[in-house]
Amino acid sequence: MKKTLLCVIWAITFNLFAQTTPTKRPLKPSDVFRQVSLGDPQISPEGNWVAYTLSNVDSVKNKRNSDIWMQSWDGKETIQLTFTPDGESKPRWSPDGKYLSFTSSRGGLTGSQIWLMDRRGGEAKQLTDIKKGDLSDYAWSPDGKKIALVITNDTDTSKSKSPKPIVIDRYHFKQDVEGYLMKKTTHLYLYNIETKKIDTLTKGIYDETSPKWSPDGTQIAFVSNRTVDPDRNENTDIWVIDAKPNATMKQITTFTGRDYAPEWSADGKQIAYLRTTSAESYIMYDQSILCVVSKEGGEPKLLSKTLDRPVGSPKWNKDGSLIYAIVSDDRTRYIAQFSAIDGKMTKVLGGNRSFTGIEKHPSGNWLMSMSDPQTPSELYVFESGNLRRLTNQQEAFLAPLALASVEGFTSKSKDGTLVSNLLYLPANAQKGQKLPTLLFIHGGPVAQDEFSFDMTRQMLAAAGYSVVAVNYRGSNGRGLDFCKVISADWGNKEVIDILGATDYVVQNGIADPEKLGIGGWSYGGILTNYTIATDTRFKVASSGAGVSLVSSLYGVDQYILQYEHELGAPWKNFDKYIALSYPFLKADRIKTPTQFMVGQSDFNVPSVGSEQMYQAFRSLGIPTELIIYPDQFHGITNPSYQKDRFERYIAWFNKYLKK
């Protein structure tokens, strides 16, 4: 009797639990409308609050909107500060902590202005009234009396409904998002808070960006390329200028590669910054080195030169003895500290996750952004040796979802190269089950797939596929030689590595060899084309923002420097251009049905690259389709188009792999 009663009670309890615990579901394309994105965290001067941006989708207007939020340092209070449909960005605290400023074009403004919000309450008030030019960045002086402005001036300020002809006279004349590059210059200005007067700090034919005030407020460090023709190289240097009109600027670094991201030490005597390893005019296969130089210039200390890994986001500690930074390693990004004297590195925070930003708290603790395969970026606090999650903005997005599991594996290519990869398995995958498998290839090429949240691969896994992310040669995180080996040899070693990873998942019973697909965007789309022109085992492909007829792209895309310095001029080295164009010139050997996608306004990898391959497939009778997203650049930002792209990926792959 007692046993029967216990069984009844257990059954009732189980049923009640089942009724109150919702079943997790797979990710679906419409979830792009629910995902939020955190950015630009800023700690208040006294350290009690963190301001940041939170963007979400306005489904009615079909666009993302960014608002300013505030989180208490102890994590107990979360406050939304702005609510307008116009969007706000770049939150910055006044040095006394009384005000929070931000940029916005709210109220029908044609361009961004700085707005000021009193922490004691009340509506934000417009602070600046910039009549000509576009405000792109700003920084408060340490005494709170002035603001350094970064303004881009356009020579054509007419508002005519009939645009003037575009007249080009520059070597590098087009850039994605920016479009055709006109005679614009970006300069630094000083805005007086009390008088509202704007003084010119820099002028001339060159651009100046990234202003950083010295701790005493007397000087500003900035970045500029002041070579004879900046269009013909990627050089930038660190400069310093007194924070007053008509001051003379002083060049601090002289490296012929890129010096950038200046950060003053607390005593104002030194500047930490990043520089490239290469001194060449064009820098693709490279990684940043952490450096320190005297504010007077001279020979810098190359603190991470022997590390052979990219370093980013440098921040000094309180006493100036250490510099904290983010290091990109094999499939991860970790936090490290470097001695400012000898560069000795100590790993502070690591693991299978990815840190993407750090900010110093007045107490000496740290704020950072972090993501892992199951969690989009949130803010975390590192104090007393412990990591504490500060924000929970992703909880609503994640709550109903059953996400794919993610694990790392190493494959061996046919030439013996070891390649680091990630495998996404659907949440309901059975152990030992062979699944239809997609190789989804990252762009760059100098980038990497990491143990971080990846919406695209999670989406494809949710559709029932095992998804493989291959960190082919050219990817970062494995050292400079691993990156540089593909220079002027595109579509060779990368394809060998992709096929090696494919062999691994087939031989280990993960992938069904009769149900293999491949896809990618940008360089991932380019490698998709190279791979299906090399191997016919893939039953379906999706090539996004790719190109195959490399010989036709000189002067068409934004990579004129890369063509000149990596391949040489076509009239001198046309054989090289032809060799790299093999997916198009050997299109008759391709058997894989392929979907081509691209943004109509893409100047990075223009639509002609996809159109050429689509036309070749149609001429040859290979199943294909071409999707062009109107008014989109290289990155598809329209939320409805993002949803549409996921739907088309899944429908196209399903058509050939799930008959």
Automatic annotation (TrEMBL):
Role according to the record: This enzyme catalyzes the hydrolysis of the N-terminal peptide bond of an N-acetylated peptide to generate an N-acetylated amino acid and a peptide with a free N-terminus. It preferentially cleaves off Ac-Ala, Ac-Met and Ac-Ser. Also, involved in the degradation of oxidized and glycated proteins.
Alphabetical UniProt keywords: Acetylation, Hydrolase, Protease, Serine protease, Signal
Descriptive protein name: Acyl-peptide hydrolase
Pfam families recorded: PD40 (PF07676), Peptidase_S9 (PF00326)
InterPro entries xref list: 6-blade_b-propeller_TolB-like, AB_hydrolase_fold, Pept_S9_AS, Peptidase_S9_cat, WD40
Peptidase S9 prolyl oligopeptidase catalytic domain sequence ranges: 452-659
Cleaved signal peptide residues: 1-18
SUPFAM superfamilies: alpha/beta-Hydrolases (SSF53474), DPP6 N-terminal domain-like (SSF82171)
